[in-house]
Amino acid sequence: MKTTASLLALSLICAGFGARAEAPDQAAALNDYPTAARADYVFGCMTTNGQTREALTRCACAIDTIAAAIPYADYEKAETILRMRHEAGGYLAQEFRIPASNSMLKQLQEAQAEADVSCF
After folding, report:
1. Distance (Å, rounded) from C-alpha 43 to C-alpha 119?
2. C-alpha 27 chain-centroid distance
3. Could you give the angle at which helices 99-119 and 53-69 cross, rounded to 10 degrees?
4. Do the Cβ atoms of 97 and 85 come closer than 8 Å?
């Protein structure tokens, strides 16, 4: 009886180690935003919201909320579309006003709205 309990305990311990071994992969999938991209967002956000410690905390919260809602590849595409719409003129900007672009921007806007509610 003691050996059965020992085997059960050992099985549970091994299962726990297996779950921990998978955790870094899951964390990497959820945290696919490069540090530089997060820092750029926080710097821009702080420029808009003040250069205070409170703004730093809120802006960091905002990019974390956005990162939880949108994979980095989609975020990067939406940011490029926004930049091209604002900086490029004429026919170049028209290439970024197609329905597919609008749906990518909508996804980003919804994530930003969620971040505003959660963090500000």
Report:
1. 16
2. 12
3. 130
4. yes
Please, which contacts does 18-26 make with residues 24 or more away whose CB atoms are closer than 8 Å?
Answer: none
What's at 64, amino acid-wise? D
Q: CA nearest 67: which of 17, 114, 18, 30?
A: 30
86: left (phi over 0), alpha (psi -120 to 50) or beta: alpha
The DSSP call for residue 113 is: H
- Which of 68, 87, 67 minimizes the C-alpha distance to 76? 67
End-to-end CA distance of the chain: 57
Task: Enter the DSSP assignment of 34.
Answer: -
Question: What does the DSSP assignment read for 56-94?
Answer: HHHHHHHHHHHHHHS-HHHHHHHHHHHHHHHH--HHHHH
Query: Alpha-carbon distance 26 to 96, whole Å?
Result: 33
Global confidence as pTM: 0.72
Q: How far is CA 13 from the centre of its chain?
A: 32
Structure tokens at 44: 């821009």
Q: Block means of pLDDT (10 residues each) for the chain, length 120 residues?
A: 39 39 51 94 97 98 97 95 81 78 94 97
